[in-house]
Design a protein that fits this description.
It is a single chain. The protein contains six helices and four strands, in the order ααααββαββα. The protein is globular. With about 190 residues, the chain is mainly alpha-helical. The chain binds zinc ion (2 copies). One zinc ion (ZN) binds near residues 142, 149 and 168.
Length: about 190
């Protein structure tokens, strides 16, 4: 599966966006205010973003929960339906660009689109390509029981089970190692 620079950026952005959502009512929102939203936009080099308002903040949070549902979709058909709705609502204007020295690629957001529509269009299309390539299963949630962060598994054989957070993979490895040792001790 060909993953261009922009697709990779869009994937990072959507994963990080989904992971700012509070896990439950007691957890803090990773995008609590406009300041946090501005930091997010700068950190992910989202282009053509104007002055942000409270409207943008609530719209981005809404888009975030729609993306979370796509990551939680049980199958490709469900994901496709959700992506179609999301992208249609945002409106897209595909156009070729080779900005900043990158090879030719397509931007989807309409010129002057709001931040939420921008994210919905470009990140939505990045996810759409995974469905097209028969790779929807790569859109995952971490299997560590107390984590469940979203991530995209770009490993060759789709074998990744844990998110980027080192603690998840390591912690699970340690737990598995201890369990194995315990087993062999009690067996021996
Ligand atoms: Zn671009
Ligand atoms: Zn994790």
């Amino acid at each position: 599966m060909l993953i261009t620079h922009d697709t990779r950026c869009a994937l990072n952005t959507v994963v990080d966006l989904v992971n700012t959502a509070p896990e439950d009512d007691t957890a803090a929102d990773g995008l609590p205010d406009l300041e946090a939203l501005a930091v997010f936009v700068r950190g992910h080099a989202v282009s053509d973003v104007g002055v942000l308002s409270e409207f943008d903040l609530s719209a981005v949070r809404k888009v975030r929960s729609r993306f979370a549902r796509i990551f939680a979709a049980p199958d490709a058909r469900a994901a496709a339906g959700l992506i179609n709705e999301l992208v249609a609502a945002a409106g897209t204007t595909p156009r070729l660009t080779d900005h900043d020295g990158y090879d030719w690629h397509v931007h989807y957001f309409a010129p002057g689109a709001s931040l939420a529509d921008h994210l919905a269009a470009d990140c939505g299309m990045a996810l759409a390509f995974f469905v097209v390539a028969g790779e929807r299963e790569r859109l995952r949630r971490c299997e560590a029981p107390d984590c469940r962060r979203a991530f995209v598994d770009l490993s060759r054989n789709r074998s990744r089970r844990y998110c980027d957070s080192r603690t998840c993979g390591n912690r699970l490895h340690v737990a598995a190692y201890r369990a194995r040792r315990k087993e062999s001790e009690s067996a021996g």
